[in-house]
Amino acid sequence: MQTHVVPVGFDYDRLIAPLVRDQLDVDRAILLEGAVGSEANVEYSRRLSTKLEQDFRNLLGATTERLVLENVYDYDPAFEQAYELINDELDRGNEVWVNVSAMPRPVSFAFATAAHSIMVEREADREKIHTYYTAPEKYLETELAEELREQRALLEDLRETQSESTADAIGEARLEERLEQTRDLLAEFDERGTTIGAKEIDGSHIVELPVASFSNVKPFEEVILYKLGDAGEFDSVSELAKALADELDEEYTDSFRSKVIYNVDRLGPGGKGYIEQDHHGKSHRTRLSRIGELWVRAHSGSPPEEVTVD
Q1: Confidence (pTM)
Q2: pLDDT at residue 309 above 60?
């Protein structure tokens, strides 16, 4: 079965037209709609999702499911939701296609990165995971701006040529208000493009997008990551090794400590990137990196396998 995971933003054609035109098989469609933003934006996205749900059924014969993304600007839960969705579909034996054409960038990157991470972890299923993008044939913003220019010209002509009867019918104050609003909107569009300002999210105007690791995680490395996920941070690798020895009911020896140091190095910045460290005197304060935190969150329902320490 072919499952398409489709985050729904403000686009319709790019989410279904390529599937119809290329005659791709779509057995199941999972539509995700955002729940954050202005009331008008949320409602607009919801209407598009309803139309897509109907057309995926009618045009492609697909079963559909609609889900909600609570915050389209919060990368971490989007990654976690994407990771769970893709894995669930693979577990059912389905091939998964992830459309990253719509939705705000944090969601698109989160879904693409989650798909890539799963390709690394599930090498046997790599050919069953696809991420894709569709470019629009044209952008409506520029056409809307041109129509607005025509409206401005019409309003200006009407103001100059109106008679007393048309002035009474339209209302001079209303005509001036609409003309002023049109001028202001066009001025902003010409100066700034299709968006305005930079939105603050969780105290910052920048949403960092972590990069996925290119290596799988081995069983003992999983134990280290889960331990860091539980504890948050250790003042040194030795302290981490002692905590792991207690948890695994192992004797804390130089050999065990060396094994922990070796695996922490493999998980660190020079390796898989799941762990970051700061110099703290002669020790290294050790904690999860951002992508490490995402890995632990995504795998929270799958505890590490029983580990044999050689």
Answers
A1: 0.72
A2: no
